[in-house]
């Protein structure tokens, strides 16, 4: 890479860089700082500053439940996303290159259907299915889909919504390695398909897999439209529901979620970077 | 790029015997290409069911109406209703807000992403990219809360600068635009970064050595190369802003007519019979708008990438 030439400073562009970074920094940090000030009660004459809202995170009813539900749903969504996408993407590279366009279109198609429209469509399907399946063997299945403790229907919806993001992230990861060469090398060393997949291909995709997983977690934790329309109460819906009565708490919880997820993603990026030089030839 | 050449050689050597080029070979080998599609089938099946069923149900529901007696009839009344009065206004309001914020975010993100990519501050790149990923995906509700605390009626800045007396309201078109930019700009930065990484320093040097100014380099070299990315990024932002619901829902009191809010209230509120059909028709309208925008983008994309590659 032409690092030498790239690092030659252009005076004008350096000024522009500083300006745009500073403006962006102010725009992106000020609301977060104000929200932080709001949660601890600074800037409001009627309140004495305290960390009460953050202490309440650990004692308030419903938070553990809704966050737990969101995390369980996120875990299931990640499993399903990987279960659907990895075979498809590897197949495209190894056996059926002609399927590439189909897979790309299918994975980007959910972008055309807004979450609210998807939620509206799913409620309609569920209502009709209830009418048709009432008193039939299919009915328990329908009830299981909407079981409040673990609504499978949300996992399915989240998976669909995560497809565009997961596809682009995994594609970028796969583009950086030569899957075909790796697989052929492993297979000609007599590795089984199982070993090839889990000890050769997936470890090389580690960073892309982790990125996909955490972006999916972020998406599931932040998802509001479909969950609210279907009447479930995972994390985001809960924070909005309590924002009227516990305003400080809801903001504190959202901030903690935002910053916590960011730190995890940052750690993933850091670990990926520290490994990278070793893996290059 | 550099790994493509040895890969191709191996492909050719190994591909002959195993995977390729024998569509008419008998027996086991003939089944290989078909078997190769097996890995794709679950994904396609899932998308067909999870995307196809709701959209089909929505279309069916949008075109039918049931009267008090419970009989259903095919009608276009729901669609006619969505193209009239407050519903049309909400649809246009959403389109206007999304187009404006997507355009502004696209323009603002280019210098920002460029600054991040070329900056030599250690760790800035990772910090910005991971923060962008979180904001763009987790976004919605927390951002609405943060902006209510900042610029809402009792917000910190509203109080500090007396913005309320000057006619500022977060719950207006412009207020909502500022909130939307907060998650659209990070999304665009994420989209642009790989493309900006692909801009080789040599191209800039070649242009400068030939006597081009920095401006000319951007006008004639960099922007044409980035154009497809900017275009698809704009469409992605438009779609994201268009379908955003959580932000507006969390900012209770928003008086801006947005189509997502209208759909949700028609579906969840204890509504009159017939409202559900209108909600579904509005949902179909949204899909049509999003599909049109994406279709136009694909057409433009094809024309520009034709001479790029």
UniProtKB/TrEMBL annotation, chain A:
<keyword id="KW-0997">Cell inner membrane</keyword>
<keyword id="KW-1133">Transmembrane helix</keyword>
<feature type="transmembrane region" description="Helical">
    <location>
        <begin position="102"/>
        <end position="129"/>
    </location>
</feature>
<comment type="similarity">
    <text>Belongs to the binding-protein-dependent transport system permease family.</text>
</comment>
<feature type="transmembrane region" description="Helical">
    <location>
        <begin position="63"/>
        <end position="90"/>
    </location>
</feature>
<keyword id="KW-0812">Transmembrane</keyword>
<keyword id="KW-0472">Membrane</keyword>
<dbReference type="InterPro" id="IPR000515">
    <property type="entry name" value="MetI-like"/>
</dbReference>
<dbReference type="InterPro" id="IPR035906">
    <property type="entry name" value="MetI-like_sf"/>
</dbReference>
<protein>
    <submittedName>
        <fullName>ABC transporter permease subunit</fullName>
    </submittedName>
</protein>
<dbReference type="Pfam" id="PF00528">
    <property type="entry name" value="BPD_transp_1"/>
</dbReference>
<keyword id="KW-0813">Transport</keyword>
<feature type="transmembrane region" description="Helical">
    <location>
        <begin position="149"/>
        <end position="170"/>
    </location>
</feature>
<feature type="transmembrane region" description="Helical">
    <location>
        <begin position="208"/>
        <end position="229"/>
    </location>
</feature>
<feature type="transmembrane region" description="Helical">
    <location>
        <begin position="249"/>
        <end position="269"/>
    </location>
</feature>
<feature type="transmembrane region" description="Helical">
    <location>
        <begin position="21"/>
        <end position="43"/>
    </location>
</feature>
<keyword id="KW-1003">Cell membrane</keyword>
<feature type="domain" description="ABC transmembrane type-1">
    <location>
        <begin position="65"/>
        <end position="268"/>
    </location>
</feature>
From TrEMBL, chain B:
<feature type="transmembrane region" description="Helical">
    <location>
        <begin position="171"/>
        <end position="196"/>
    </location>
</feature>
<comment type="similarity">
    <text>Belongs to the binding-protein-dependent transport system permease family. CysTW subfamily.</text>
</comment>
<feature type="transmembrane region" description="Helical">
    <location>
        <begin position="225"/>
        <end position="252"/>
    </location>
</feature>
<feature type="transmembrane region" description="Helical">
    <location>
        <begin position="272"/>
        <end position="300"/>
    </location>
</feature>
<feature type="transmembrane region" description="Helical">
    <location>
        <begin position="37"/>
        <end position="63"/>
    </location>
</feature>
<dbReference type="InterPro" id="IPR000515">
    <property type="entry name" value="MetI-like"/>
</dbReference>
<dbReference type="InterPro" id="IPR035906">
    <property type="entry name" value="MetI-like_sf"/>
</dbReference>
<feature type="transmembrane region" description="Helical">
    <location>
        <begin position="97"/>
        <end position="117"/>
    </location>
</feature>
<keyword id="KW-0813">Transport</keyword>
<keyword id="KW-0812">Transmembrane</keyword>
<protein>
    <submittedName>
        <fullName>ABC transporter permease subunit</fullName>
    </submittedName>
</protein>
<keyword id="KW-1133">Transmembrane helix</keyword>
<feature type="transmembrane region" description="Helical">
    <location>
        <begin position="129"/>
        <end position="151"/>
    </location>
</feature>
<feature type="domain" description="ABC transmembrane type-1">
    <location>
        <begin position="91"/>
        <end position="297"/>
    </location>
</feature>
<dbReference type="Pfam" id="PF00528">
    <property type="entry name" value="BPD_transp_1"/>
</dbReference>
<feature type="region of interest" description="Disordered">
    <location>
        <begin position="1"/>
        <end position="31"/>
    </location>
</feature>
<keyword id="KW-0472">Membrane</keyword>
<keyword id="KW-1003">Cell membrane</keyword>
């Amino acid at each position: 890479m032409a690092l030498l030439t790239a690092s030659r400073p252009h005076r004008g562009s350096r000024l522009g860089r500083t300006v745009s970074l500073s403006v962006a920094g102010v725009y992106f940090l000020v609301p977060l700082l104000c929200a932080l000030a709001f949660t601890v009660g600074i800037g409001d004459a009627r309140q004495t500053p305290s960390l009460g809202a953050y202490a309440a995170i650990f004692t308030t009813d419903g938070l553990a439940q809704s966050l737990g539900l969101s995390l369980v749903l996120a875990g299931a969504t990640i499993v399903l996303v990987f279960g659907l996408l990895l075979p498809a993407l590897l197949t495209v590279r190894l056996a059926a290159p002609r399927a590439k366009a189909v897979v790309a279109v299918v994975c980007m198609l959910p972008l055309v259907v807004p979450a609210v429209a998807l939620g509206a469509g799913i409620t309609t399907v569920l209502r009709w299915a209830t009418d048709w399946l009432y008193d039939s063997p299919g009915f328990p299945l329908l009830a299981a889909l909407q079981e409040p403790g673990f609504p499978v229907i949300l996992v399915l919806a989240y998976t669909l919504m995560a497809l565009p993001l997961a596809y682009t992230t995994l594609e970028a990861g796969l583009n950086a390695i030569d899957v075909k060469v790796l697989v052929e090398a492993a297979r000609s060393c007599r590795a089984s398909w199982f070993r090839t997949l889990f000890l050769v291909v997936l470890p090389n995709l580690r960073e892309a897999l982790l990125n996909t997983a955490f972006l999916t977690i972020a998406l599931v934790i932040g998802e509001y439209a479909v969950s609210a329309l279907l009447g479930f109460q995972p994390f985001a819906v809960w924070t909005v529901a309590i924002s009227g009565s516990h305003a400080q708490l809801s903001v504190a919880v959202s901030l903690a979620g935002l910053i916590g997820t960011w730190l995890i993603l940052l750690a993933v990026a850091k670990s990926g970077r520290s490994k990278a030089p070793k893996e290059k030839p | 790029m550099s790994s493509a050449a040895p890969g191709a050689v191996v492909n050719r050597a190994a591909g002959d015997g195993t995977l390729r080029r024998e569509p008419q070979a008998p027996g086991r080998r003939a089944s290989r290409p078909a078997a190769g599609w097996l890995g794709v089938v679950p994904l396609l099946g899932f998308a067909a069911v999870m995307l196809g069923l709701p959209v089909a149900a929505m279309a069916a529901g949008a075109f039918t109406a049931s009267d008090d007696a419970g009989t259903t009839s095919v009608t276009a009344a729901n669609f006619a209703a969505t193209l009239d009065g407050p519903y049309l206004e909400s649809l246009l309001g959403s389109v206007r807000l999304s187009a404006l914020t997507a355009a502004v975010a696209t323009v603002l993100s280019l210098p920002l992403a460029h600054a991040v990519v070329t900056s030599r501050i250690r760790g800035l790149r990772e910090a910005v990219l991971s923060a962008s990923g979180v904001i763009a995906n987790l976004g919605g509700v927390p951002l609405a809360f943060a902006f209510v605390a900042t610029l809402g009626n009792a917000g910190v800045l509203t109080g500090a600068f007396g913005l309320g007396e000057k006619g500022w309201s977060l719950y207006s078109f412009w207020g909502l635009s500022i909130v939307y930019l907060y998650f659209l700009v990070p999304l665009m930065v994420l989209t642009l970064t790989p493309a900006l990484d692909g801009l080789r320093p040599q191209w800039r040097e070649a242009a400068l050595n030939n006597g081009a100014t920095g401006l000319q380099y951007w006008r004639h070299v960099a922007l044409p190369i980035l154009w497809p990315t900017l275009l698809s990024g704009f469409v992605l932002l438009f779609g994201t802003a268009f379908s955003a619901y959580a932000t507006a829902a969390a900012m209770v009191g928003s008086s801006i007519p947005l189509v997502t809010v209208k759909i949700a209230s028609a579906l969840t509120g204890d509504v009159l019979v017939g409202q559900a059909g209108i909600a579904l028709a509005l949902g179909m309208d949204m899909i049509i708008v999003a599909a049109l925008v994406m279709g136009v983008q694909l057409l433009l994309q094809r024309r520009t990438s034709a001479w790029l590659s």
